[in-house]
Every structure is written in structure tokens, then in C-alpha cells.
């Protein structure tokens, strides 16, 4: 019997992928071997040693201590692309609302009092304060061209906007999906200098914290719209508010409100609503439940953010995945050790993700516990995960 701890509400369609005869699921489970969650912040939580897999029913994993899990050899799974359409639609809604001043206009309309004739007079007098502008004359900058960014860029093109994208790490899959009408910016500064609106679709990591800052906002033409449905912290909120107050920027659409943002009349604040559609909740839950189940049942790794290449064939083969700090000669040391242990290495692949480098070794035979222990003891090795074939 596997035990799954849920830290947020997970769509029943996802939980149904874990049969009751084999899975005990709940929010109070002790010694779980799997955890399923959405945005619950795990950083302050003591994660039981029993946990072998963590599944994030969504995209962003900055609420999970991924590095610590990597060094414990615990894969963290997410649901790539499963909520991307939902976020795209809310970005488009935000852009349209901002360019047509809808939030201010609705507040104005809600406050109008009197009978129908009085309302009509007040509306006709007041509407001049909410004259908007149209999207086809505007250029949108899309920062981060992953699952969401690509969809936003392609949709904005179809609305008649000019679109400029920036993503130095774009995946092959995204590059294929991106419309050829999207221009590429050579740098972020280049993007800001030509865009009337910008939208961020990058993960919150050191390299992306504060990329929307005071200097770059000044590079935008007057009247700019800033959209952040990615994460608080990617935009320097104080700089955005200062730009709104100075009259340089027009509107800030934000999905991660703070007290300062909620109070500001030029901020269109959503309550972290990007992924909140029935479809996205179901897609994410099903995808991540499948990943956790397959891993717990036969070691298959699909959609892991920290062991991305460790897919284990079900019927044959032996593989070790070694997460390591980027130490020179480590791969050489591992190869020598394996060769000395009489292991024929079928394939040895080096990968990296963020600060962590991976070495993935496909072996033609079972590897001994002593050899695994020897690899673990090499300086700089963070974790060694040995996946054995089950059939
Ligand atoms: N508001 C909400 O409810 C939601 C928010 N999100 C946020 O949106 C983010 C993006 O989601 P997806 O598009 O699904 O992820 P993704 O992983 O498909 O795309 C992220 C893209 O950012 C790019 N990137 C990474 N570092 C970069 C940098 N320094 N400069 C430019 N590009 C960079 C990557 O190459 C990748 O193409 C998530 O990490 C999450 O934080 C995602 C879903 C829902
Ligand atoms: O998928 C993401 O990164 C999100 O931010 C969605 O968060 P949620 O699952 O709605 O709490």
C-alpha cells in the first residue's frame, strides 16, 4: 500500500488515477511515500524521510525545496504545459482590461447612483475618463518562451499585435511551436525599448528575480502595460508602482498581489487565478498523479524537474543518475570507478539544470551496492539514484 499526503486540494480526476486498493490518500497521512501539492509552501516544512516522490500539480516549483530533494535523491514532478492555456487566457484578459481601462471603468459604474435616467447621464459624462487604446497598434514583449510564453506570443499575433520574444534558453519544442511572426529580441534591454506592453513567463530563479526594474521600465514608451502572471519577485514591484505614479507606465496586471499592489488604482490584481480553471486543475492533477504513480510502482521518471533524463525502460537495462556539483574531472572519476568495477558503460550522458549537473549512466548489467557506495563517496556527488529494471 502506498501512502500519499496531499498538501492542497487536488482535482478528484487526478486522485482517481491512484487506485484505492493500492493507495491511501489524505491530508493527515503519516510516513507518506508520495506528496501531491499545488502552491503549498514546503520550505518551512519537515519533509519525512519516507518521502520518495513529490508531485506539483502545476508548473512552478519555487514552493518546493528542489535542491534539498535532489540531494536526497527524491524526484520532484510537475505538469509541464497542463495549465498553459488557462494562463494564456488570463494574460489576454488582463491585456484587454488594461488597454480598455476596464477595472477603473467598472469601479466607476458600480458607484453610479440614482434612477435609470440619472445613471444614463452619469455614464455618458463619465466615460470620457476611460477612453482606451487598441491592441493592433501595439507591440508586446514576451519574456520566457516556454509553454505559456509561446501560447501568449502566438495569440497576441492573432490579435494583430506585433510580438517580440526573449528566451535565451528556449527548448526545441517551444521553438517549433513559436510562430515565425514573433521577432526575437537580442537582449532584455532591446525588448523593453520597443514594447508598449510586456509579459513575463519565466520561473522565479536567481537569474529572473527583478528583471523588470526601474531602468528597463524607463526604456519603454510612455503608457506601458506590465503583466506578471508568473511569480511575485520577477518584477521589482516598487519600481513598477513608482513608474505608474510618475505617469510613465499605464497599468500593472499582477497575479501575486501584495498589500501595496491591492491598494493601487492602476494595478489590476488577480488573486493568483492563472491556473484556476476546471480544465487546468484536472489536467495538472492527472498528469502529476500519473508521474508519481509510475515512479512509485516501477521507477519510471516522467516530467521530473530535478532528474529530467532518468527515464528508465520498464523491461530491460540498468541506469544510475548522479546529481553532482559541477566538479572538474568528476565524470572521469566515475568512469574509472565503473571500469575498475568491471562495468561496461553503454552510455554516459552529461546534463545540467540550473546549478546542478547530472551524469546519467546506462549500464549493461546490474551494479553492486559497493560500487554505488563508492560513487556516492566521490567529493561533490550529491546523490546517486539507481533504477533497476522490473521485468
Ligand atoms: N499564475 C499562475 O497561476 C501560474 C504561474 N506560472 C508561472 O509561470 C512560469 C512559466 O510557466 P511555463 O511557461 O509553464 O514554464 P516553462 O518551463 O514551459 O517555460 C519557462 C521558460 O522560461 C525560460 N527562461 C528561463 N530562464 C530565463 C531567463 N533568464 N530569461 C528568459 N527566459 C528564461 C525557459 O527557457 C522556458 O522556455 C512558471 O515557472 C510559474 O512560475 C505557471 C502556471 C500558472
Ligand atoms: O502552476 C503554477 O505555477 C501556478 O502558479 C498555479 O498555482 P496553483 O496550482 O493555482 O496554486
UniProtKB/TrEMBL annotation:
Q: In which pathway does it act?
A: Amino-acid biosynthesis
Pfam families the UniProt entry points to:
2-Hacid_dh, 2-Hacid_dh_C
EC number(s) given by UniProt: 1.1.1.95
Domain D-isomer specific 2-hydroxyacid dehydrogenase catalytic residues, every copy: 24-306
Principal EC category: oxidoreductase
Can you name one GO molecular function term for this protein? phosphoglycerate dehydrogenase activity
Gene3D superfamilies of this UniProt entry?
3.30.70.260, NAD(P)-binding Rossmann-like Domain
What residues does the D-isomer specific 2-hydroxyacid dehydrogenase NAD-binding domain cover?
96-274
**What are the protein's UniProt keywords?**
NAD, Oxidoreductase
Family per record: Belongs to the D-isomer specific 2-hydroxyacid dehydrogenase family.
Protein's name according to its UniProt entry: D-3-phosphoglycerate dehydrogenase
User: Per the UniProt entry, what species is this protein from, by scientific name?
Assistant: Rubripirellula lacrimiformis
This protein's encoding gene: serA
Amino acid at each position: 500500500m502506498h501512502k500519499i499526503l496531499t498538501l492542497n486540494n487536488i482535482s478528484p480526476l487526478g486522485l482517481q488515477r491512484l487506485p484505492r486498493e493500492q493507495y491511501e490518500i489524505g491530508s493527515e497521512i503519516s510516513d507518506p511515500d508520495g506528496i501531491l501539492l499545488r502552491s503549498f509552501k514546503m520550505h518551512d516544512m519537515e519533509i519525512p524521510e519516507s518521502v520518495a516522490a513529490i508531485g506539483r500539480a502545476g508548473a512552478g516549483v519555487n514552493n518546493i525545496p528542489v535542491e534539498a530533494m535532489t540531494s536526497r535523491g527524491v524526484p520532484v514532478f510537475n505538469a509541464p504545459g497542463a495549465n498553459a492555456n488557462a494562463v494564456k487566457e488570463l494574460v489576454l484578459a488582463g491585456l484587454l482590461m488594461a488597454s480598455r481601462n476596464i477595472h477603473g471603468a467598472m469601479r466607476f459604474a458600480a458607484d453610479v447612483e440614482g434612477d435609470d435616467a440619472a445613471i444614463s447621464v452619469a455614464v455618458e459624462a463619465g466615460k470620457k475618463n476611460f477612453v482606451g487604446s487598441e491592441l493592433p497598434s501595439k507591440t508586446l514583449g514576451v519574456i520566457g518562451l516556454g509553454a505559456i510564453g509561446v501560447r501568449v506570443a502566438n495569440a497576441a499575433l492573432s490579435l494583430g499585435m506585433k510580438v517580440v520574444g526573449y528566451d535565451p534558453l528556449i527548448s526545441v519544442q517551444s521553438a517549433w511551436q513559436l510562430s515565425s511572426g514573433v521577432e526575437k529580441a537580442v537582449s532584455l534591454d532591446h525588448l523593453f525599448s520597443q514594447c508598449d506592453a510586456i509579459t513575463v513567463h519565466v520561473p522565479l530563479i536567481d537569474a529572473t528575480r527583478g528583471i523588470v526594474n526601474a531602468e528597463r521600465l524607463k526604456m519603454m514608451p510612455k503608457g506601458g502595460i506590465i503583466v506578471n502572471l508568473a511569480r511575485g519577485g520577477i518584477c521589482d514591484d516598487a519600481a513598477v508602482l513608482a513608474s505608474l505614479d510618475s505617469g510613465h507606465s499605464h497599468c500593472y496586471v499582477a497575479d501575486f498581489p501584495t498589500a501595496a499592489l491591492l491598494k493601487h488604482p492602476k494595478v489590476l490584481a488577480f488573486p493568483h487565478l492563472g491556473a484556476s480553471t476546471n480544465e487546468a486543475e484536472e489536467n495538472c492533477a492527472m498528469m502529476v498523479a500519473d508521474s508519481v504513480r509510475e515512479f512509485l510502482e516501477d521507477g519510471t521518471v516522467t516530467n521530473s524537474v530535478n532528474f529530467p533524463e532518468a527515464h528508465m525502460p520498464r523491461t530491460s537495462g540498468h541506469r544510475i543518475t548522479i546529481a553532482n556539483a559541477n566538479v572538474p574531472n568528476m565524470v572521469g572519476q566515475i568512469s574509472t570507478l565503473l571500469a575498475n568495477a568491471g562495468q561496461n558503460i553503454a552510455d554516459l550522458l552529461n546534463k545540467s539544470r540550473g546549478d546542478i549537473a547530472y551524469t546519467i549512466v546506462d549500464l549493461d548489467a546490474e551494479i553492486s551496492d559497493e560500487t554505488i557506495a563508492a560513487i556516492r563517496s566521490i567529493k561533490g556527488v550529491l546523490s546517486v539514484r539507481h533504477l533497476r529494471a522490473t521485468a
